[in-house]
Write a structure and sequence with these properties.
Helices cover 35% and strands 23% of the residues. The protein contains nine helices and ten strands. Helix 1 (32-41) packs parallel to helix 2 and helix 5 (130-142) runs parallel beside helix 9 (250-265).
Length: 266
């Protein structure tokens, strides 16, 4: 799709702006890399829990860094870590974090401006699998996205599982939880964004213009982008298929589309 910058915001109905939820949630992160990234990013850690009698040099390094930051370090049984990890590999370490502070669109613009770039955001339309959620955040961060937008209800969120799946990317990527995706999209359009939905009815991803202010909508597992949200989008983006099954996993689709966006934008 060839976009005309002068068309931005034209012919769009004005809806009430969305209310961004700044509610905070307590959460835990597990695994060596997510904990290391949290320490590196200066996130507030209330307590570090490390498996007893471990001789892992990486865990030793994590403990040293935590103590330098005056973070309480406690040795615990493996069972305690397994309970906190909810079935995820904890690698002998967990961090009890301060409440996660969700951000708003101002954080997106501030980050983009600090890099001298036009803002790129990813909208997750009710992604429910925390592994997919985290993997998309990871891809978004690596492809230069300036924020992740997702609904507060019927969606995965920032949890031990999704943080670990993001490989620490949530420590650096503004996470924006909203009440209503359609209203959020309307607000983005008012600010000059083009919005594309990942959908098989669209043009191939490599033929669409992904420069400028852009929001990419990734639909839920199985159902894809919801009709109401799709109606709010300016155009759709597809990934051509040449095999025998009918679609990519949501996180794989996001990685392919965002990699193309990164290519065009850099």
């Amino acid at each position: 799709m060839n976009k005309n910058p002068n068309d931005r915001g034209k012919g769009r109905s004005h809806q009430p702006s969305e209310t961004v939820e700044n509610a905070q949630e307590n959460f835990v992160i597990v695994g060596k890399n997510p904990v290391q990234e949290a320490l590196k990013a200066g996130q507030q850690i209330d307590k570090l829990l490390v498996q007893k009698n471990n001789k892992d040099h990486v865990l030793g390094d994590i403990i040293t860094k935590a103590k330098k930051k005056q973070i309480v370090v406690q040795s615990v049984d493996k069972a305690r870590l397994e309970t906190l990890a909810e079935g995820e590999p904890h690698q002998g370490v967990a961090a009890l974090m301060a409440p996660f502070a969700y951000q708003d669109l101002d954080a997106v613009f501030a980050l983009a401006e600090s890099r001298g770039e036009e803002p790129l955001v990813v909208i997750l339309d009710h992604i429910t699998d925390p592994h997919n959620f985290g993997a998309i955040v990871r891809s978004a961060n690596l492809c230069g996205a300036h924020g992740i937008i997702f609904p507060g209800r019927r969606s995965a969120s920032v949890t031990a599982v999704s943080v670990k799946a993001s490989s620490g990317a949530m420590s650096y990527t503004p996470m924006i939880k909203v009440n209503n995706l359609s209203q959020c999209i309307a607000k983005l359009k008012e600010k000059g964004f083009w919005v594309t939905a990942a959908d098989m009815d669209g043009a191939p991803y490599y033929k669409n213009d992904m420069t400028g202010k852009l929001a990419v909508v990734i639909g839920s597992e199985g159902k894809g982008v919801s009709p109401g949200v799709k109606k709010c989008c300016d155009f759709t983006t597809a990934i051509p298929l040449y095999g025998d099954i009918d679609s990519f996993n949501a996180s794989a689709a996001a990685a392919i589309i965002l990699a193309e966006a990164a290519k065009q934008r850099h």
